[in-house]
Amino acid sequence: MNTFLENQNWRYATKKFDATKKISNEDLEFLKEAIRLSSSSYGLQPYKVFIIENPEIRAKIQPVAWGQSQIVEASHLLVFANVTSLSDEDIDGYVENIAATRDLPLDAVTGYGNLMKANLLGLPADAKNIWSAKQVYLAMGNLLNAAAEKQIDVTPMEGFLPEKVNEILGFDALGLNTTLIATVGYRHTEDATQHYKKVRKSNEELFITL
Prior knowledge:
Layout: H1 3-10, H2 25-36, E1 47-52, H3 55-61, H4 70-73, E2 76-83, H5 88-101, H6 110-120, H7 125-149, E3 153-157, H8 162-169, E4 176-185, H9 203-206
Antiparallel strand pairs: 1-2, 2-4, 3-4
Helix pairs in contact: 2-7, 5-6
């Protein structure tokens, strides 16, 4: 079997982490780079990723994340927060980055910036928020795949109260909203879930060729 598919069969949403096992700095940098290289609409990456190592902060988050033990037991806690209202400044900064990275005059990419502004800035506030939140899921996908390659466990979570996590981390003042949480580390030998067969739809049920 292809190694990528083997890794996908190996990974699962870990329910109990081994708190004694920590991710190395080298592997953490690998995961960060995988997230950084994720695709996003227009390449804008309208989100921030907070790596929560502080045990006191994690202890505050656990009760508003349904008390899930992974929050405090995993090696690292990653909080993905989307930009709630994309602005002219966000797009201008991205366009300037394109010009600098590709050694282009700014006016060569101004049109692309204007296209993004025309398509995005006029959206209602809730639509902007939904659009940017969707981009976070692409980054999470890259994290899951990269971690599986390193045999590092990740549990993606939607089971938390976003407004409470926002309050704990001061996101409202930063124009951010908690979209997803990921606990990252190594499965505990006592986690029975790792032995469950993976349940997915069959090809016949999932795929339709037209």
